[in-house]
Specification:
This protein is α+β, with helices and mostly antiparallel strands and 510 residues long. The protein is built from 16 helices and 25 strands.
């Protein structure tokens, strides 16, 4: 899972600060690396490296990132190394200067890399995002032509045709922002719409339209853009350097299947994705979970509901209201420790839990406590939190997950590893409770989760809920693929980081 952002402003308006501020708002989507590329005329200026946005960009970098259009990326790795070389955006110089940022995961990346080798397209990394960039560039290269003055000419039809070719060749999930030097910024979504991308507009100082595309609506609102709409599945949007917008559906219609884990965990609660309020969906999850608890234990002895901050808070509050039980804050979160679920490496995740959360004993002493979290993946964090609750004096500790049991790896851009590393695989609720050390375990059902998220004016007819039900919506995920994925995503495969400190200036020869 990553965060992406693309902006085209008026010629006299620099976008470096907006890109920086937008990435800060999207930081929850990736803490491994960050990058920005701006364009001033036909020259790209790039800064990217490992680390948080505030660690990667300093004043000297921002001064050098000049231009009125640009794209940005925050990275969350699902496989391979955690290194500067894998940070995004990526770029190529042929047939034009093209830079691209990707949120998602291609399920046929290895086949694409073999094809690119055969056609002479070189890759600098093992990233599927760089493969997608080269597929797009290869098709655009076939359409390159010069105008009567001998300068490169790129027609909007050429761009949409090349995006259509990407749809035909690239399987999996992808939301993309890309920039073509001297021409404009492009955004598009995979035909299933698994990963989100939303379009916004504002009026610049000169009175002309400025445009932004981002992973979440909260980035648009923060930067002063009005929400226009979500980019449709299989749709491409291109904004010229002069701010003219063109859109085209470039793929055959498929069933819209947004990732349901966006609403469970990843997205900020103040975002709206595909017309669905994340906050409202999480409240619905809490209400449905309360109904489940009432059905299973009508005579429950729960004294207090305590959320696991932050993503468990909204569901926990709604759950407590429905149960008629006190809602209390029992943990204080250190906001300078990142989200443990997306930290690279199991030992780092384990070590960070007690550094991340501190207990307020008065809320636990002598009470039957129900802890509420958004989900349980490996179970190590849950186990530590339950231990902390008992150490604080809780008499009984129940645990509730606002999401169903996670039993399958996610192949569309979320680091849910092999089934062998997921605590729910092959275990009953009672066995999971024993494993994490709670007295009773409550899970949401998949049916209730889907209903909780099926809100808004036009909810999708289905969601990608593959990590819960094993139904991979792209239809190309095999047992062999999952076996290979296990090797790539095992924590031992995540290696050390590499820091860089330079601005890369790219002279694009069109």
């Amino acid at each position: 899972m990553c965060g992406i952002l693309g902006i085209v402003a008026n010629y006299e308006t620099p976008v470096n600060q907006d890109l920086y501020d937008g990435l800060l708002v999207l930081q929850h989507r990736g803490q491994d690396a960050a990058g920005i590329v701006t364009c001033d005329g036909k020259r790209f200026r790039m800064r990217k490296s490992s680390g948080l946005v505030t660690d990667v960009f300093y004043k000297r970098h921002m001064k050098s990132l000049v231009g009125h259009m640009g794209i940005g990326h925050v990275r969350y790795p699902t496989a391979g190394t955690s290194s500067r070389a894998e940070s995004q955006p990526f770029y190529v110089n042929s047939p034009y200067g093209i830079t691209l940022a990707h949120n998602g995961n291609l399920t046929n990346a290895e086949q694409l890399k073999e094809h690119l080798t055969l056609i002479g397209r070189h890759q600098n990394t093992s990233s599927d995002s760089e493969a997608l960039l080269n597929i797009f560039a290869a098709h655009l290269s076939n359409k390159k032509r010069l105008n009567i003055d001998g300068e490169s000419h790129l027609d909007i039809e050429d761009i949409f045709s090349s995006v259509g070719a990407v749809y035909e060749e690239c399987n999996g999930s992808y939301a993309i922002v890309a920039m073509i030097s001297g021409f404009g910024v492009l955004g598009f979504r995979d035909p299933n719409g698994i990963r989100p991308l939303i379009l916004g507009r504002r009026i610049g100082a000169s009175g002309r339209e400025e445009w932004c595309m981002a992973s979440e609506s909260v980035a648009l609102i923060t930067l002063g853009f009005d929400i226009v709409r979500d980019i449709l599945p299989g749709e491409a949007a291109f904004i010229t350097t002069g701010g003219e917008l063109f859109t085209r559906v470039c793929a055959e219609e498929k069933v819209h299947s947004p990732c349901i884990f966006e609403y469970v965990y990843f997205a900020r609660p103040d975002s709206i994705i595909d017309g669905i309020s994340v906050h409202e969906a999480r409240r619905n999850m809490g209400i449905a979970l309360a109904e489940r608890i009432i059905a299973e234990t009508p005579n429950h002895e729960i004294d207090v509901v305590i959320p696991i901050p932050d993503s468990g808070r909204i569901s926990a509050l709604a759950l407590a209201e429905r149960l008629g039980v006190s809602y209390r804050e029992g943990f204080v979160k250190n906001r300078y420790v990142g989200r443990t679920f997306i930290m690279p490496g199991q030992e780092i995740r384990k070590d960070s839990v007690r550094k991340k959360l501190n207990v307020m004993p008065k809320e636990f002493e002598g009470r039957n406590v129900l802890l509420v979290d958004d989900s349980i993946v490996r179970g190590n964090t849950s186990k530590k939190i339950i231990e902390m609750s008992r150490d604080a004096g809780a008499k009984t500790v129940y645990f509730a997950s606002a999401a169903p049991p996670v039993c399958n790896p996610n192949v569309y851009g979320i680091d849910m590893p092999a089934a062998s590393e997921l605590i729910a695989t092959g275990r009953t609720n009672a066995e999971i409770a024993e494993q994490i050390g709670c007295d009773k375990m409550f899970y949401q059902t998949i049916e209730d989760l889907v209903e909780a998220c099926s809100i808004g004016e036009n909810p999708p007819s289905r969601f990608d809920s593959s990590c819960f039900d094993g139904n991979y919506v792209t239809g190309d995920v095999t047992a062999d693929y999952l076996a290979e994925l296990e090797l790539a995503r095992h924590d031992d495969a995540k290696q050390g980081i590499d820091m860089g400190d330079e601005i890369i200036e790219i002279h694009n020869e069109a």
